[in-house]
Amino acid sequence: MNSQSNCRVSRRGLLQAGAGLVLAAALPVPAAWSAPSGQYRLVATPARARLAGPGRPQTEVWTYNGMVPGSLVHLRQGEPARLVVENRLDQETTVHWHGIRLPNLMDGVPGLTQSPIKPGESFLYEFTPPDAGTFWYHPHANSLEQLGRGLAGAVIVEEREPVAVGGDVLWILSDWRLTEEGGIAPRFGNRMEAAMSGRVGNIVTLNGRASEAESFRAGERVRLRLVNASLARIMALRFEGHRPVIVAVDGQPCDPHEPAHGRILLGPAMRVDLMLDLEGEPGRRYDVIDDFYDGLSYRLTQLGYDARPPIRGHALDAPLELPRNPLPEPDLASAERHRLTLQGGMMSMGGMSGMGGMMGGGMMGGGGGMMGMGHGAVWAINGVSMTGDGHAGTDPALVFERGRSVVLELRNETAWWHPMHLHGHSLRVLSRNGKAVPHRQWQDTVLMAPKDVMEVAFVADNPGDWMLHCHVMDHQMSGMMTVLRVA
Ligand code: C2O
Ligand code: CU
3-class secondary structure for 349-409? Predict the structure, then answer.
């Protein structure tokens, strides 16, 4: 039992199960959070972390405040926040506050909303979060490498009135590709990978280290906040012996419901808040399995019950529902309708008709021959590829008058999964492949399966230029990105 990771990836970027588990010295306890102050200083800086666990090699990572994941940013709904980001990396950076509906100038997209923060410089982000919930922050500059080397942290915005639960637990799940020596594997932006599933790694960490078990007490109800901070790995989590209830998606409270087939689907950048009643037996352990990729399931961790007797004899019957956030409801009758078609990638010649057939023969053709495609583009939205992290002078794909209700039809014509993220707004998910979705939940990142057609709606109430892109970082960097303008 001394393998360095609990899951491994083959040369082709797929996961093999059963490589053994890390022995943790002690069961971790959930971190105690300090009270929200609204004031933070986040220093982007290189550091070292023992990702694979005690006794394993250290990894040179990039961090916020020397920690992986970065410092927890703990804010209060409706109260102003001031966050100073200092750049001690040797390259430019920015911070994007993923999912928070904030003023455009605070959105952290280089070129589009701010000048990048140069090495040695700082930038003050100031905003008042309108919504309570689970959000996260990450760079939007050289995103694939900066996120892939560890720059990510959670933002928890607390409700105005505290929610009645026994515990509030955060799991930031991150996927890393490490070498045998424990370093971050080089070659970010491999073209073949970019045209397929993206850079899937070989070790998954929970709050910054491979986890054997997470400690809980029987009889408790905990709010478990899941954040998928991976570059590309999609997760489908099963909690053996438990019946978690989804109470929020991407920070936005939803009708409490059990996940379909007991699997909690979590694409890159997505968050899910669960209410988890700990009805197992004291002293026992229960597997938490990720079985998203066919035949490649692995154990993420275990729910490790301590020996103490249950806190209560019967399940808590307090309501599960969280207070809703003040989201504007789109008026579907008067909404303008637009279509955004996702194109490109391997095995999609059919979907690329009229686009120069650059995928012919399965070769990534250097971007030649494709209208609107920039250097290294392998993906497009409506025939145009915006590559990189965001930049100035981009014509928006769509322009909305402020306050308009909008229905977007997202068509995935590719053979790959895409978690599509819109900045500055939340999207009400209306339908998938012509069928109404059961809870019409709000999301800022919508995971689309190959060939999916989805309808989402929102009120374009936040002025500015907003990115819409795939959150598989290789896909974003290589063209699956566009800009929507609210004027
Ligand atoms: Cu997590 Cu452009 O975003
Ligand atoms: Cu994608």
Answer: CHHHCCCCCCCHHHCCCCCCCCCCCCCCCCEEECCECCCCCCCCCCCCCEEECCCEEEEEE
